[in-house]
Task: structure prediction
Amino acid sequence: MKPGVLSALLLAGACGPDADSRAPDPEPGYFTESASAYQVGAVFAQVLETDEDIALFKAIDAERTQQGYLIADAGFLESATLRANPTDLAWHPEAGLLVADDGSPLHYLSRLHEGRQTEFAPIPSALRIDDSAFVLRLRTDLVAVAPDGTIHVFDGSHLALVSYASDGTLLHASFLPEPARSETVAAASRNREALGGASVVLASELATTLQPLADRRLFVKVNMGSAIGYVLDAASAEATPVVFAEGHEGRGWGATALFESDRILFYGAFSGPQLALARIELVER
Result:
């Protein structure tokens, strides 16, 4: 979910263990891009911004139901900022509510459990950002919980998947495939400088969706080269790109997406349709 959904749930203040007291972190690895790809084909259902019978303000989250798709619309929400920059949340059956925010320079998440909010998921040493180099820099991380209880954070600055056990112990970290990852990070840096630097551009939202799949893989929506996202297998470190089939390009279909084995739902405020449902097939490249 996005920031507006979260803020009413948050409490000021957090405490937790010092991340620097941990043993040294293992160096992050890299995902390897798969020889196959999920191709997005023709749109077979869509809602246009001009449709008079459906008035969406800003679609911010989507879930599949037996009747169809449930869309959360930010135009039905009221919020007030109570904690630094919440960007995503997930529910864990043991850890409770996990919030991706800027509450700690050494942790990705805060944990809201039994009425207390504490720091959670220490950031690996290799992925920490030196805040002294910036007037202000907001993180845009995402969080998801896999069916087996593993907690995954997608680091929006480094384009890396960082995984944790249910108690917050770091399991592993892997960057998205090269060279597209480095090229995307470098392009974001150039754009930030062209617009006035870090004192003006507080954040660059490169990734917008981190979705756990039933088979323990994850879908991340992030534009890198020709890919509009990847299906990530943390166990094998394989990243299968999600791309548009030739003749079906449509980057304006939606900023966020809900991935399924045979279809993908694009939603969110962007140019073009607010909602677009398109076919998917797995092909060899």
Q: What stands out?
A: Residues 41 and 279 are 5 Å apart (CA to CA). The first helix runs from residue 3 to 6. The first strand starts at residue 29 and ends at 30. The chain has one domain: 3-284.
